[in-house]
Design goal:
Elements lengths: L5 E2 L4 E2 L2 E2 L2 E2 L20 H11 L5 H15 L2 E3 L5 H5 L9 H16 L3 H5 L2 H20 L4 E2 L16 E2 L1 H21 L17 H18 L5 H13 L13 E2 L16 H6 L11 E3 L1 H9 L4 H5 L7 H9 L8 H4 L2 E6 L2 E7 L24 H7 L31 E2 L11 E2 L7 E2 L3 H13 L7 H22 L24 H6 L10 H15 L4 H11 L40 H11 L8 H6 L19
Antiparallel strand pairs: 1-4, 2-3, 5-9, 6-7, 8-14, 10-11, 12-13
Amino acid sequence: MNLIKTIVTSAVAGGLMVVATGCQDTFTEINQDPSSLTTATPQQLFTQAVYEWQPCNYGVWFFLAPKFAVQSGLGVTTAGVSRTLLESTASRDGFRTINVLGYKYAMEQELSKMTEAEAYRYSNIKAALDVLLVYMGIYDTDDCGDMPFTEAAQGRFGGTLTPKYDRVEELYTLWLGYLDDAIDAFRNNTNQISLDKNDLVYRGDWGKWAKLANSVKLKIAARMIHQDFSRAKSIAAEVVAAPCGYMNDISDDMVFNKATETISTGAGSHLDRGEIAYNSANTTVSYNGQAPSRQLVDFMIENEDPRVRFFYTKNDFNSEVVRWFLENGRKSDIPWYVMENVETETVDGKETFKAWKGKGEPWVRYYGIPGTYGGAEIMTDEYKQYFHLRDYQTEIPGNKSFTGTSLFSEYMLQGRYDFTLPTAPESNMVVTRTEPRPWYGMYMTSAETNFYLAEFAVYGAVSGAADTYFSRALRLSVEAYDNLAGKNRIPYYSETYDYDPNEATIALKEGEIDAMLSHDAYRLTGNKADDLEKIFLHMEIHFSYLPKDQYVTGRRSGVPMFESTLFPRADYSRDNFPASTFARRTAVGNISPTDLMKDKLAEAYTAQGFTAGAIDGSTLNSERVWQDVGAPQWGAGPNVR
């Protein structure tokens, strides 16, 4: 998608701030000052809804993602695995669908003022907004179940201020209807108003919107396998047979940015002007030290999976840094796991860097952190050089310090995160990047669609071979993250900064996907149990930057599995943390007697069997959301085949 500049008007419709997009002369065609507008077009309302639409916002990444990753079995933090990460969880993420839902009713209000024939021309715009609502609604119900929807966001239009909580199973049925209606609209409606630049997602391409709507049905089907397996399989079959097609190429992926620079959002708007263009201004994953497990990084590197380079940061030990430590007699300050990949030589009586061993750059710059419980408290050199490396790095010129392990990439999550190249302690070279970069988010993808189809092919629900879907999913996943890394201009993607002669870029190279797919861990064999394990594991890896999806996939599949020969899950039962103590949902707070919604909250919690105020893992494991009832325990493996 080409970058566009977004200008926001101060028009108000039904009390809602609205926007318009395009060039500075957006309003020249109507020859009217934007500040004089008192109503908004459906196109403008749609754009503002997209601005509000953010399934994985700062709160998800800051509060929930570190715990989701550990509980799912794929992550750790720089502080190690702890009781807090295993047992408890943050409070419910909230109902961000409602922020967007209000625009649906504002749009309907504007359309009600038109003739039937005129309003019909906006049907596809309404349908596109419904698709966005369903996608967001799935996320809002993922972590803690029932939510207000059918009566929500209507207060300003005469509706109730105390909307009921709709049951998840009822919402899934409702949303499937929304998606089917949207597909029908996108395929059959004629003489429709074009969104053009007001559509930041697909630029008014109704064919792509139809594929998205059809593919989102699979997200619901996957979440229904433990409650209505027959219906779930039927939905998957409908998706494959649908004339509109499903997302099956990187050009279909839902990857877009909302603006290219800080913009004005109008007087009184609550939207942050910079976050629209650059996403969060606050640190997210780096604040909590969110990192991949050593097991996961080793697995990906062993199988030559290029995504390890897009997911995680290079460590600080480039060859010039290693050279300095060696030549200055500080070899012991270099982490032992880094030294395993270093070939040295003696020059003029000094040991120095000669070459990288193993797979070489850039592979040798990625290291995960052990998932051992309480690893940060184990004071052996093996663990200290993962968790306490700075203790070794004393009296280093320039007060510099160097990190040996990799982190989740903050550069993939925000466009205002600075980069400074690691240079040797006595180097005078300074390379920094501080300019903001328009941020691209990635949501539903063709890779995700094909992972679901591989799963349902194993169930016998859809035509086509499971291994064909699976291979395509893996290929598309690598292409999608390579594309995202390039758009977000993450460090080392296409430049080495002319400092280290041994530095290598991380962009996808020709032949790398084929090399990855040649490994047994990335191929199906026809053994149903083994194939499902591989599909679910790789689906979770694909969801590394969609933390709720990763959590839900691990929760519904029981993968990674204990005692697996593919990717064994860490077992903390000997540390008094069996799988039954890991949370399977987020917490709901105690009900305040002054809360206007107190009766509705009490009804919702009772209906779901939730204990208000409970934050312990055992309770949050046994009191499950509807779609999780009947799913396997963490690590137990798939129980639906």
